Amino acid sequence: MFRGARFTRVNSWCALFLGVVMTAGFYLLLLPVPDNVIAASFTQRGEIPYFIALFSFWSLAILWLKWKKLRLQQQALKRIVVPEDPEFVLTPQSVDDVYHRMYESVDDVRHFLVFNRIATALSNLRNLGRVTDVAEILQSQAESDESSMETSYSLLQGFVWAIPVLGFIGTVEGLSIAISGFGNVLGAASDFSQVKESLKGVTGGLSIAFETTMQGLVAALVIQLTLTAIKKSEEEFLDACSEYCSKHIVGRLRLMPFEATIE
Fewest CB within 10 angstroms: 37, 59, 129, 153, which? Predict the structure, then answer.
């Protein structure tokens, strides 16, 4: 139902759909145990916990999709698209052999980061015949891919910031309820027994205050740790792509006689 984003990027609408489904499933699991501590914390503390749950599951959906897409991209590094014959040299005349092997490995090279990087560089070699530009193009593509990777985490970083803020908003809301309730108790109660009974409503506001903060901080911590782990894996993948290109593409290039003369 959703258009796939490029490489390891994630379609935000698809992730939102999964986040809504996961949030609904989470609350359905809490229905049979309404008096449970966790169930009460997420269903009896105002509207803030619902938003915390939605943003948290939306973030986890993005991370799960990125992890699945990263694993698929990593599989491409196991395919050797340059003939393993030690005598093979990458020249404008032999570019078609590499293209043919790439399309034998995957349905579309544009869907795989390392193959797209190679195809972009080799198109210059095939069209212009200048092998000296290939390494520069590969380096430029590597920098572009790193920048794209960084921007793909922008929404997640926004959620990591927003979820604790939601918790603090719940804290302010809860404290406001508690203080307002305590003022009403002092103004209306005439003896200690009435004060004691009325204070039960005040403690409910304090529950909202402290539990929403805890929910926001715990959710943000889990998301940040997961984000860091996946981002580290993606950075290692980009390094592996650069190493792959250096070994199998740049290492197989040979200067043409006219280029050597120019140098």
Answer: 37
